[in-house]
What we know:
Layout lengths: L1 H16 L1 H4 L11 H11 L5 E2 L8 H12 L4 H10 L13 E5 L4 E6 L3 E11 L5 E11 L7 E10 L4 E4 L1 H12 L4 E5 L7 E8 L7 E11 L2 E11 L1
Antiparallel strand pairs: 1-7, 2-3, 3-4, 4-5, 5-6, 6-7, 8-9, 9-10, 10-11
Helix pairs in contact: 4-5
Amino acid sequence: xxxxxxxxxxxxxxxxxxxxxxxxxxxxxxxxxxxxxxxxxxxxxxxxxxxxxxxxxxxxxxxxxxxxxxxxxxxxxxxxxxxxxxxxxxxxxxxxxxxxxxxxxxxxxxxxxxxxxxxxxxxxxxxxxxxxxxxxxxxxxxxxxxxxxxxxxxxxxxxxxxxxxxxxxxxxxxxxxxxxxxxxxxxxxxxxxxxxxxxxxxxxxxxxxxxxxxxxxxxxxxxxxxxxxxxxxxxxx
Length: 237
């Protein structure tokens, strides 16, 4: 518990110290309840198209990340991504209490913050036959322990390179949401750093005489402009 308190205190100091860099102020208490911000973003995102800049001509994922993260600045990993993208070449992110996995070649970026609660922003994109891109955004918070208390939201945007706009893609969003709703277990999602498919791990609390949890590892396979779930391994522990 003390480790979690110390982490939150350090994170708040770091984020508040970044106020001048971002040119705005933040409510420090919001970072103690990141799951609330995750669902607040899900509630509002569908009505907000995002303009995409061209600060990174050879790294579209960074442009996508900047457009999304700068729009939703009450969620701590988004703040960290915004700070990182001001100078992607610097090597002090760990000192700033966040960890970046930035892979422009594969169209992937992830910001992870660890502590009593591990929470992240993860993004990638898929190319579409019409010249557009489908941009995926995962906001996820996992609690220490068995992984049954994960909170997450996965959002999708259609990017039109003609007008450089990311428009909420409600078809892809609802498709994945419906797939996840078919399962009793709590899902943890992993966007593809390589390949095209999303991995999903479900953990279900069952508490029988022999087992406490059921786990299932499936794949959301990308093809024909949609996702289809492919069953994977299942086990108990």
